[in-house]
Design goal:
Elements lengths: L11 E5 L2 E8 L6 E4 L5 H12 L10 H6 L1 H4 L11 E6 L3 E8 L17 E6 L8 H15 L4 E7 L4 H7 L3 E6 L2 E7 L5
Antiparallel strand pairs: 1-2, 2-3, 3-4, 4-5, 5-6, 7-9, 8-9
C-alpha cells in the first residue's frame, strides 16, 4: 500500500530575535536545522551528489569538482537553481545533508527518470551523520514539497544493494524498473484506486 500522505516527524519552528522563521525548522531530538537550499549551497550539493553516487564506505567519494566534471552527475546540478528545482539542506554546526529534486525531459534526463512531469530526487547525508534520522527527515519533507507543488509523483534511482533502498520503500517508494544493478523507484503523490 502506498502512503497518500507521508508521516511527518515532529518539528519546531526556528526562533530568532525577530520571531519565528517560516522557512526554518529544527528536529527537537537532534538539533538539526532544515532549510530550503539556495544558490549558495551549490558546492555542498555537489559534495552530497558525490556521497549519493559513491555511497559504499570502501570506495573513495568524489570531490565536488570531480562530480561537476562528470557529465553523468553534473546534470543534476548544472544551473542550480533553475526553474522548478527545490531542495533542502540539513545543518548542525555546518551542513550535514541535503536533498533536492529536478525535472528532466525525455531528451535529457537522470538515471531515475520516468516522465517529464515527475521530478527526480537526489539525497545524501555525510557518512559520519548517517543513521540519525536526518535522511528520513530530508526525504519526507522533500516528498511533501513535491506534493505541495502539484507533482503526481517523485522518482529516484538506487543501487539494488544500497541500504537506503529500505528508507525509500518505508517512505512509499516502489520499484518500477530495473537497470543493470540499480532500480528506478517512484513515490506517487496519491494512491491509485
Amino acid at each position: 500500500m502506498l502512503l497518500t500522505k507521508p508521516h511527518r516527524l515532529p518539528a519546531l519552528a526556528c526562533i530568532s530575535s525577530s520571531g519565528r522563521s517560516p522557512n526554518c525548522w529544527t528536529d527537537p531530538v537532534k538539533d538539526v536545522r532544515f532549510r530550503p537550499a539556495a544558490a549558495e549551497d551549490f558546492t555542498f550539493l555537489a559534495t552530497m551528489l558525490g556521497e549519493a553516487a559513491v555511497w559504499r564506505p570502501d570506495k573513495p567519494t568524489p570531490t565536488a569538482d570531480q562530480v561537476l566534471a562528470d557529465p553523468r552527475y553534473s546534470l543534476y546540478l548544472v544551473g542550480w537553481p533553475r526553474q522548478g528545482d527545490y531542495g533542502l539542506v540539513a545543518e548542525q554546526d555546518g551542513p550535514v545533508g541535503a536533498a533536492w529534486f529536478r525535472r528532466f525531459t525525455e531528451a535529457s534526463h537522470g538515471y531515475g527518470f520516468v516522465a517529464d512531469d515527475v521530478p527526480e530526487l537526489a539525497i545524501a547525508v555525510l557518512a559520519s551523520r548517517r543513521h540519525e534520522g536526518i535522511g528520513r527527515r530530508l526525504l519526507v519533507d522533500l516528498i511533501e514539497a513535491s506534493v505541495a507543488q502539484g507533482f503526481p509523483a517523485i522518482s529516484l534511482s538506487v543501487a539494488a544493494d544500497n541500504p537506503a533502498r529500505g528508507l525509500y520503500e518505508s517512505s512509499g517508494f516502489v520499484a518500477v524498473e530495473k537497470h543493470a544493478s540499480s532500480w528506478t523507484m517512484v513515490r506517487y503523490a496519491a494512491q491509485s484506486n
